[in-house]
Design goal:
Helix content is 43%, strand content 19%. It has 25 helices and 28 strands. It binds GDP-alpha-D-glucose (GDG).
Length: 727
């Protein structure tokens, strides 16, 4: 029997194929994601699917050898051509998504259509590779911005698979995100997952807002209903392999190396930077801050040295070449100005070094500078903390790194503010050992509490969770059974909502005119033996009369405020012209005038603020404002503020669709069964008021207390037709 596995999918495998003098070998891949997932990959016995680097120059025999080595590492390669890598990876991923998601819109490639096409093509290539290996029960965990279309592509092919997606980089504000020409496809792509994870609550919030704005969905804090599925949005700040860093930090060889680095620094304060050589990491401004420090404090000029490890990365992308040129120029200038025969203040290591070397640097440092302009998390900050088993050292951390949410005991800075980085750096250099230890203790506790294994476990536990709010299974598979059950009732009292239940929602209420087939269906139901029909709507009396006046049915208008029994006349449940209305209307009108697409509808007992044509993000701001402005009025007059489908309604408390239930029961024979069907929040009042033994049916997605669910008005009509013809 197949044991369910975890399939990890990322652009790059944790190992890259290398050929040296004809010998095939595997080298560790660099970067945050590979470093982070390496531990969970081993512990969870997962299969990792991804790109193993360029193998185009390998002979067949070498390629075969490479594939064998890869399989032994429990990895499965997705081979890509050089042309694909140039457009999908260097192009769309790293010259469009990467700068945009890090708030550097001016670095986004001007015209990326071709790159976009190849991005989609490569995502599809990954989808095929995953489908080939997936077995029922396997979990799929997709990583990062190179594969944002993959969750949806997998969902289409494997509808029952558990799919998680984690974004390692920031998700920008919707204002920025929506400049992306392919914003809709990217969002839909991600929403193919069951769980979408982010490092911070603000990235999650940005994503939900973008989805609301671009796709018109109405997300809650941690869930979006999308295409009939509940997609959960999680906050999962990534951790590091704490034990591994502690082990390296206690290794005698590493300690000796750290001592040697300190000796070489010649008594200067050692300030350290460790970054991929990337323009998001804030290197130029970090250099300028050091220069500012020297300008202000001549006494520090010979006492401080910055060692900057800058690991080569994305060397084919233009913006990176430009960055290297800029940094080299700054280093040259500052060293020329402040260096002496005894040494230079900046030492730039432009290469990759082994992990134990990185830890030796962490241990040797007095001050760690982590000042990215934006960063999803930033592992370096956490690695530094985990390595400082001696409890010493000061950490300067950008407030725009995801890590700043957790590491509040670091010295937080705005990396764009060079003066403030300079003074914070000075503060770090001068920090007393007692303060260093106090801060480091708190930082270490924080980093230890959430290591990478706990992170992976929590994400996967979340992914395994059955969401209680997941839409209940549709009746589509068993409508006939429900129809039979209803038909078997001795006496039937139907309570039917109109908009969204018998009729699809239209752009404006006027456009939702009933068709002849619907009138005929309602008439046939009303003429069915031992059956009564109630229409229960939020609409006005005259409107309902115009639609259905000639039918032998009972009608409840304005959510039950007005009632007209079959063959009778309308009667109101209270004061039809209440004193609060003028004031409320003035508030609503004022807000509608400022909100494109909004309009106010007045009914006898209530006022409704419609926003179905308003931009989703604007609507959510306005609704908050409206609720706030109506608060006092509602308190004084005992009014309820109710949200329906894209409408906010103000009306007297207790006047709701539940009134229809009491009326229908009042003269129903004993043993009558009530069947209520509705689609929005106001229908929940109807469902709540139903006596035991009744049947409540919710139409469409979303939360409900109803036990049954139908997909659409068509399905509702089919059910009602079955009652007519089956009886
Ligand atoms: C992305 C997000 C998020 C660096 N130089 C060497 C070396 N490194 C290692 C560090 C660290 C990793 O590379 C860099 O990770 P970061 O988190 O700092 O940054 P990104 O690569 O941009 O990672 C980031 C991360 O994904 C995880 O979700 O935190 O925000 O941008 O582990 O130690 N490792 C070795 N030699 C080096 O010279 N061996």
């Amino acid at each position: 029997m197949h044991m369910p596995r975890l399939l990890i999918v990322s652009n790059r495998l944790p190992v890259t194929v290398k050929v040296d003098q004809g010998e095939v070998s595997l080298a560790r891949s660099a970067g945050g994601l590979a470093t982070a997932m390496r531990g969970p990959h081993e512990r969870l016995d997962a299969l990792w699917i991804g790109w193993p680097g360029d193998v185009s120059r390998l002979t067949d025999a070498q390629r075969h050898a490479a594939d064998e080595r890869l399989a032994a590492e429990r990895t499965a390669p997705v081979h890509l051509s050089q042309a694909q890598v140039a457009r999908y990876y260097d192009g769309f991923s790293n010259a469009v998504l990467w700068p945009l998601f890090h708030y550097l819109a001016d670095k986004v490639e001007l015209d990326a259509r071709r790159d976009w096409e190849v991005y989609a093509e490569v995502n599809d290539r990954f989808a095929r590779a995953v489908v080939e290996r997936w077995r029922p029960g396997d979990f799929i965990w997709v990583h990062d911005y190179q594969l944002m279309l993959l969750p949806q592509m997998l969902r289409e092919r494997l509808p029952d698979a558990r799919i998680g997606f984690f974004l390692h980089i920031p998700f920008p504000s919707s204002e920025l995100f929506r400049i992306l020409p392919w914003r809709e496809q990217i969002l839909r792509g991600m929403l193919g997952a069951d769980l979408v994870g982010f490092h911070t609550a603000s990235f999650r919030h940005n994503f939900a807002n973008s989805a609301a704005r671009v796709l018109g969905v109405e997300p809650e804090v941690d869930v979006v209903q999308h295409e009939g599925r509940a997609v959960r949005l999680g906050v999962h700040p990534i951790g590091i392999d704490v034990a591994e860093f502690a082990r390296l930090a206690n290794d005698p060889g590493v300690l000796a190396h750290a001592q040697q680095i300190r000796r070489e620094t010649g008594g200067r304060t050692l300030v350290l930077g460790v970054d991929r050589f990337d323009y998001t990491k804030g290197l130029p401004r970090r250099m300028l801050a050091l220069e500012r420090l020297f300008e202000r404090g001549p006494h520090l000029r010979k006492k401080v040295r910055l060692v900057q490890l800058a690991v080569p990365t994305r060397e084919r992308v233009d913006a990176y070449a430009e960055l290297r040129r800029h940094v080299n120029e700054l280093v040259g200038r500052i060293n020329a100005q402040y260096g002496s025969v005894g040494g230079v203040p900046i030492h730039l290591l432009h290469r990759s070094v082994p992990p134990d070397y990185v830890v030796a640097l962490y241990l040797a440092a007095d001050v760690m500078m982590v000042t990215p302009l934006r960063d999803g998390m930033n592992l370096v900050a956490k690695e530094f903390v985990a390595s400082r088993v001696d409890g010493a050292g000061a950490l300067v951390l950008s407030e725009f790194a995801g890590a700043a949410d957790e590491l509040s005991d670091a010295l937080l800075v705005n990396p764009y503010d060079i003066d403030s980085v300079a003074s914070t750096l000075q503060r770090a250099i001068l920090m007393s050992p007692a303060e260093q230890h106090a801060r480091m203790r708190a930082l270490r506790a924080q980093v230890e509490a959430n290591d990478v294994h706990a992170w992976a476990r929590r994400f996967l536990d979340d992914l395994a969770l059955e969401d209680p709010r997941r839409p209940r299974p549709s009746l589509a598979s068993a409508p006939a059974k429900l129809a039979d059950e209803i038909a078997a009732s001795q006496y039937l009292e139907l309570l039917l909502d109109y908009d969204g239940t018998l009729m699809p929602l239209a752009r404006t209420p006027d456009q939702a005119q009933p068709d002849d087939a619907l009138r005929a269906l309602l008439r046939a139901l009303a003429e069915r033996p031992r059956t009564r029909v109630n229409l229960v709507s939020g609409r006005k009396r005259d409107n309902m009369d115009a639609f259905f006046g000639e039918l032998p049915i009972a009608m409840h208008a304005e959510h039950g405020f007005w009632f007209k029994p079959r063959g009778g006349a309308w009667a109101a449940a209270g004061d039809a012209n209440p004193p609060w209305k003028d004031e409320a209307r003035a508030i609503m009108d004022r807000l509608a005038a400022r909100t494109g697409g909004a309009f106010v509808e007045e009914k006898a007992v209530s006022l409704a603020w419609h926003y179905r044509r308003v931009d989703a993000e604007l609507a959510s701001v306005r609704l908050r404002e409206l609720r706030y402005l109506l608060r006092d009025l509602a308190d004084v007059h005992r009014l309820e503020v109710l949200s329906g489908s894209k409408v906010l309604e103000l009306r007297p408390a207790g006047v709701n669709k539940g009134l229809a239930v009491a009326r229908a029961r009042a003269d129903a024979p004993p043993g009558a069964r009530l069947v209520a069907i509705g689609d929005d929040r106001t229908d929940e009042d109807l469902f709540t008021a139903l006596p035991e033994g009744s049947i409540a049916i919710h139409v469409g997605r979303g939360d409900t207390i109803a036990r049954y669910r139908l997909e659409s008005p068509e399905e509702v009509r089919a059910l009602l037709e079955a009652l007519v013809h089956g009886s």
